[in-house]
Structure to design on (385 residues):
């Protein structure tokens, strides 16, 4: 991989909410140096003159189903819900994601360099999510972190999947009970395992151990405010220290509670119509309310429910409702990285971080602006001709 010197870029300083004219050196997939007026002192380096175009870290969508609900394939490419059983903790998104899904190319062309993908929300317990770069042909080589969360779902989705067939869960009580049953069994399994009293491993319960030991967060599909509070209640019963609310379209109704509990929200999708009852409170200003309340919030597309290339548009819509430019950018960079627990690698333009860089011909939250260059792990993967 050849070193790259990005000359004459207009870099956005997220910390100070301002722009600086600087150069960037990329080496071995990392950001090696950021400074003003770097001379061509490196041997065998490719120089790209950015001509003062706008430079940002690669954008991050921390909740999608990219590659696991494939485009252009119909049902045969929908691998996100194993609806043969409402409780499937042993599933891992990596086994269902197709890196040749066309949505990865859309992501790259839109300046999105990392996504979270994995199981859907029809099951009470869906499985484990994965954070991946958006460029590659071998999914195992695209991994940023695996797993990045343990997926459960509350509310309308599992009820409408199983309850209509009189199979548990029929009610929200049944939904919560299935989750508690699994976690109680996993607690007992951990004790037996530590005392070397298990004769054979249980793949379902093994999958829960990293969650109960605080290694990965609980990622909760929840729209309604009461479901969000139920998720907090269950987490506290089992001493689960890390949790993310996904979607959270009524999160603004319990924003003080979420701030008190230090629970972040991956909010959205914003552009979808209110096609089910749980979405009736969805509105663009909710994001502003969550930020103002001090709740760490990231914006998501939930691709394919909003197309992956709409992530910038979603941030622009929140900007139009009063969200500051700084917070709008945070919602698709460092906040998303924090939610994925990958904040030491992605989401910032800093020395030592992954060389995921995107160059725009204007303000990236202006929908007229175009992506000029996308760089992932120090390699130019898209360049507008």
């Amino acid at each position: 991989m050849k070193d790259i010197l990005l000359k004459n870029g207009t870099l956005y300083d997220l910390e100070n909410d301002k722009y600086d004219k600087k150069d960037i050196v990329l080496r071995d997939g990392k950001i090696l140096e950021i400074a003003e007026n770097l001379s061509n002192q490196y041997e065998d380096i490719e120089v790209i003159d950015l001509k003062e175009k706008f430079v940002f870290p690669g954008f991050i969508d921390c909740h999608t189903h990219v590659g696991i609900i494939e485009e252009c394939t119909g049902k045969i490419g929908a691998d996100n819900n194993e609806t043969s059983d409402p409780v499937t903790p042993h599933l891992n998104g990596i086994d269902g994601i197709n890196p040749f899904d066309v949505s990865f190319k859309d992501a790259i062309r839109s300046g999105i360099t990392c996504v979270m993908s994995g199981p859907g929300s029809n099951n009470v317990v869906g499985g484990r999510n994965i954070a991946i770069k958006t460029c590659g042909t071998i999914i195992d080589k695209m991994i940023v972190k695996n797993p990045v969360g343990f997926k459960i779902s509350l509310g309308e989705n599992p009820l409408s999947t199983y309850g209509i067939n009189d199979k548990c869960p029929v009610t929200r009580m049944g939904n919560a009970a299935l989750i508690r049953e699994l976690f109680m069994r996993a607690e007992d399994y951990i004790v037996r395992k530590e005392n070397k009293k298990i004769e054979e491993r249980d793949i379902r319960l093994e999958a829960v151990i990293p969650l109960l030991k605080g290694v990965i967060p609980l990622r909760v599909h929840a729209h309604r405010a009461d479901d969000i509070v139920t998720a907090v209640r269950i987490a506290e019963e089992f001493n689960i220290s890390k949790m993310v609310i996904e979607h959270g379209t009524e999160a603004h109704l319990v924003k003080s509670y979420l701030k008190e509990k230090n629970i972040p929200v991956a909010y959205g999708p914003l552009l979808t119509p209110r096609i089910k009852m749980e979405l009736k409170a969805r509105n663009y200003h909710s994001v502003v309310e969550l930020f103002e309340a001090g709740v760490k919030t990231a914006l998501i597309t939930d691709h394919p429910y909003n197309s992956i290339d709409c992530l910038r548009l979603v941030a622009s819509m929140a900007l139009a409702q009063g969200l500051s430019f700084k917070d709008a950018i945070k919602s698709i960079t460092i906040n998303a990285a924090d939610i994925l627990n990958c904040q030491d690698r992605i989401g910032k333009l800093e020395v030592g971080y992954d060389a995921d860089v995107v160059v725009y011909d204007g303000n990236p939250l202006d929908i007229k602006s175009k992506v000029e260059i996308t760089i992932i792990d120090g390699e130019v993967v898209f360049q507008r001709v």
Observations:
- The mean pLDDT is 96.
- Residues 172-194 form the longest helix (23 residues).
- The CA atoms of residues 287 and 318 lie 7 Å apart.
